[in-house]
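INPUT
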Amino acid sequence: MTPPITLQQLGWDDGFADDFEQFEYLGMQPARVIIAHNNYFTLLDGEREWLATPAGRLRLNAKRISSLPVVGDWVAMKPRKGEEDRATVHAVLPRRTKFSRRSPERPADEQVISANIDTALIVSDLVTDFNVRRLERYLALAHESGAKPVVLLTKLDLSEDVEEMLEELAPVARDAPVHVISNVTGEGVDLVRQYLGPGQTAVLLGSSGVGKSTLINSLMGRERMNTAETRDDGRGRHTTTHRELVILENGGMIIDNPGMRELGLWDSNAGIRDSFNDIAALAAKCRFSDCSHQSEPGCAVKQAVEEGTLDEERFDNFHKLISERASLDTAREMQARLEKTPGRPQPNRSSRPTMRKKKKS
Ligand SMILES: Nc1nc2c(ncn2[C@@H]2O[C@H](COP(=O)(O)OP(=O)(O)OP(=O)(O)O)[C@@H](O)[C@H]2O)c(=O)[nH]1
Ligand SMILES: [Mg+2]
Ligand SMILES: [Zn+2]
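OUTPUT
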């Protein structure tokens, strides 16, 4: 059991209280989602834990799966009569920040992974997982989320060419801080605590096996999370299977995630702009203001690639993310058109027949 924790310690403040006011009149109480299981959630309300499911109406009115609760969300809930520790979630309060990807199952839909996060800790190891192009992708998603992106490179104890990797990462991480850590020797782990002050929430993102759950154990000084067996290389198997918000002793909060294989960009204009601001600065010098940096004359971006001041692979990845963004727009347009076709079932709606309310005259 989690010890009693107040709403304020969970990050509740006047802004959330304002958003909640309308639900208070309806006899609801606020709570934060700390674990997302397949069909239910664990909530903390400042006093105790609840097992909760979304109300039928919330499910029904959620045009998109992204409107349903996720870990980190603040929700309006009501305890269920006659059922101990059970509650129903009636609404999700507006999210201040959210980390989203394109749903692997429904490519025209957004999948929100976690909400109300202050810091996105992007984790890679320095051994088998290190890949600057993938980190570039994570950084674009993190920039889009509204949270502060930070890169953590684990397994320092096993790596010999750290300097080389850091050099490769510097033009990609840009303003995002980069820390190297070892969960075995403990080196660098304390650096992570600066992002985990009381009431602050960080999320761990990264492939399976990079040591996300092990880092939580290092921070807590005990085996709080299940981690892969030491001999397991972590590939092809996910040790963590659900998303969970863990509360540290000092009151900081950290969300563990299963490793993500697919990381398709969702709304990413700001994310791409911010994480590729070096390319944006060059683009301002192109002869044509709408230059696509492909074959136009006077292209400052192409010139930088030719001169070697802009890494060609970074430039290629930038194009890849931009075209992914365009393909998402197409998928969404098609979905919108399908939804307008009469007689088509609406996506993500319950198959239960709805009783139509008579219009008040
Ligand atoms: N040598 C070394 N091993 C580490 C370090 N951090 C984690 N490991 C090991 O890496 C393996 C995977 O760690 P996990 O913490 O389970 O990885 P994860 O990122 O949580 O993986 P998923 O839950 O599958 O997403 C375990 O065997 C850990 O003991 C480190 O800094 N150094
Ligand atoms: Mg894990
Ligand atoms: Zn150009």
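end of record. The pocket of zinc ion (ligand 3) is lined by residues 283, 286, 291, 293, 296, 299-301 (CB under 6 Å).
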